[in-house]
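STRUCTURE:
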């Protein structure tokens, strides 16, 4: 790993570390997602995938069942939602009509009204076959993973998802505080490790952990997760790394534009030689579950609204997800036209219901919503995120803000010395002492990672430095939601040089299960990016590779496998943060040893 620039050494010695590499069998890789938790030893071929949720027994049995919003989204509750979805659908249909097929022809849209007329007349067929899947019955205080999704709505349990849209699910709506989310994560991770990896909690101190975090992260949340691993769970050592960089290691590529489409978020980031370009990171709050919601809308348009499903219940949402995975595609070269399709409704311990319906372009247009997110009907200012500037932490007196201000003060001092050569050293030291006092006052306020305005103590120090202005420019908010193709263009154009942009356009790696698993996704992304990229880049670009299955690997586990590869490298031994060190130095170690600019 190359050294991370802009770091200040500790003033106190760090405890002596082990010189021998850590064996992969004693390294646990944790990749927490919004829907799935992927976890396993670095020596394992594949990780264990468990739904990242927990059902806790309610204190009062009279409390009504209120499932947490998963498929339905409050961002769709605005007056222009229908018009927005229709405009998005129209754009997707135009793209479908104008994209040439492999043989040079053009596809025609299927007759929607005829399909709706037929499907409305189809009656459900109740079979004699009973779905063997059973509701979870237990009296335990909590249930983790897949069993938690099969809790009957009448049971005295409440379902919690500790991660939503790629971040810790901290919100005021259902009293989900940071401490309660961390408590859920502690129980989930400990239970999965003990159950699936057969490692008792008393032996955690003998294991090391690599934690994958999103490319656009919240600093105080990462600090809390490290504290959870090293203090609460008691692992011997740990370090963090970005999902995009791990995807590069798992793909066996030195540099690429990494597109990660998961269940609830889509992130794009450019990575060169193991370094994530901070200015190129962008995350949008939509993913595979939004495609499922779009499919439900499209099926309703063609006369098949799936009335048997209650889309506020997890079991029915999973059924819709399964229909999406088995039916939807992005292959414009298939036969097209109207097809007969059998659809089965399987709910636990009930008779299977079967439909024989006709479907057309709905199966393709639903997935094209990833390129035309207007079809989701989402509206809100928080749907797109870029990396925010770290506001500072009380445990780290020499954080980014301190370095930024000392740099500014140093520049002013140099200018003053030039104007007045007789300025004494005592005056310079006095200004730095005052500067450090100002930083300690600022460190007490950790309510936001990205303040809207600079503190008064900063503005009084004079003109901003060039480094600070560049960072603020990088973290400018994005005005509107973009399709995956537009996000790729946005991310690459944020790169610093034309040569780097050429490298990123030439290699685009798609990971995650929200897009890469659809047949034809590779062709669509290549076509859309090539169509919209700057003409000067198109002229000098020799080829554009869009990789959806790196090394023929399941795209959902590429990031996890990249972290497993990283655990075996000699240079990784310098990144471990040991439990004893963490208790002494806390988040200062993240600034010193994180393999990216903290």
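SEQUENCE:
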């Amino acid at each position: 790993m190359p050294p991370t620039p802009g770091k200040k050494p500790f003033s106190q010695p760090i405890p002596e570390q082990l010189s021998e590499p850590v064996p992969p069998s004693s390294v646990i890789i944790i990749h927490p997602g919004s829907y799935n938790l992927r976890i396993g030893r670095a020596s394992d071929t594949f990780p264990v995938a468990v739904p990242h949720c927990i059902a806790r027994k309610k204190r009062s049995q009279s409390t009504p069942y209120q499932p947490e919003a998963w498929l339905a989204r409050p961002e769709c509750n605005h007056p222009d939602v229908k018009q927005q979805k229709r405009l998005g659908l129209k754009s997707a249909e135009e793209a479908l009509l104008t994209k040439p097929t492999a043989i040079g022809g053009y596809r025609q849209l299927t007759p929607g009204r005829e399909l709706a007329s037929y499907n409305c007349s189809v009656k459900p067929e109740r079979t004699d076959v009973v779905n063997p899947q059973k509701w979870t019955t237990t009296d335990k205080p909590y249930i983790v993973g897949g069993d938690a999704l099969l809790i009957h709505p009448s049971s005295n349990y409440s379902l919690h998802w500790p991660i939503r849209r790629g971040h810790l699910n901290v919100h005021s709506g259902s009293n989900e505080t940071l401490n309660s989310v961390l408590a859920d994560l502690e129980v989930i991770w400990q239970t999965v490790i003990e159950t699936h990896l057969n490692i008792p909690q008393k032996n955690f101190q003998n294991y090391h952990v690599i934690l994958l975090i999103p490319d656009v992260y919240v600093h105080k949340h990462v600090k809390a997760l490290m504290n959870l691993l090293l203090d609460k769970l008691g692992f011997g050592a740990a370090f963090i790394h970005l999902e995009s960089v791990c995807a590069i290691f798992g793909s066996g590529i030195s540099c690429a534009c990494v597109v990660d489409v998961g269940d609830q978020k889509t992130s794009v980031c450019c990575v060169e030689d193991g370094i994530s370009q901070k200015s190129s990171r962008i995350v949008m709050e939509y993913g595979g579950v939004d495609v499922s919601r779009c499919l439900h809308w499209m099926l309703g348009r063609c006369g098949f609204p799936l009335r048997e499903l209650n889309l506020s219940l997890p079991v029915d949402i999973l059924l819709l997800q399964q229909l999406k995975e088995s039916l939807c595609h992005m292959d414009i070269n298939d036969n097209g036209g109207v097809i007969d399709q059998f659809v089965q409704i399987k709910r636990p311990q009930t008779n299977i219901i079967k439909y024989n319906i006709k479907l057309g372009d709905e199966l393709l247009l639903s997935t094209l919503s990833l390129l035309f997110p207007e079809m989701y009907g989402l509206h809100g200012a928080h749907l797109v995120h870029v990396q925010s500037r770290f506001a500072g932490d009380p445990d780290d007196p020499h954080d980014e803000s301190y370095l930024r201000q000392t740099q500014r003060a140093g520049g002013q001092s140099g200018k003053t010395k030039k104007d007045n050569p007789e300025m004494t050293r005592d005056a310079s030291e006095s200004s730095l002492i005052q500067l450090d006092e100002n930083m300690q006052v600022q460190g007490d306020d950790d309510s936001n990672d990205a303040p809207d305005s600079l503190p008064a103590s900063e503005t009084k120090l004079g003109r901003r430095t060039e480094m600070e202005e560049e960072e603020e420019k990088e973290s400018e908010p994005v005005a509107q939601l973009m399709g995956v193709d537009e996000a790729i263009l946005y991310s690459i154009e944020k790169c610093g040089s034309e040569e780097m942009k050429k490298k990123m356009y030439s290699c685009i790696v798609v990971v995650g299960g929200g897009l890469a698993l659809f047949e034809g996704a590779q062709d669509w992304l290549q076509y859309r990016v090539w169509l919209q990229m700057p003409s000067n880049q198109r002229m000098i670009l020799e080829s554009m590779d869009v990789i959806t299955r790196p090394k023929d690997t399941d795209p959902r586990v590429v990031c996890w496998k990249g972290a497993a590869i990283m655990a075996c490298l000699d240079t990784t031994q310098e990144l471990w943060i040991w439990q004893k060190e963490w208790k002494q130095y806390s988040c200062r170690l993240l600034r010193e040893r994180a393999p990216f600019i903290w």
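REMARK: The CA atoms of residues 388 and 475 lie 6 Å apart.
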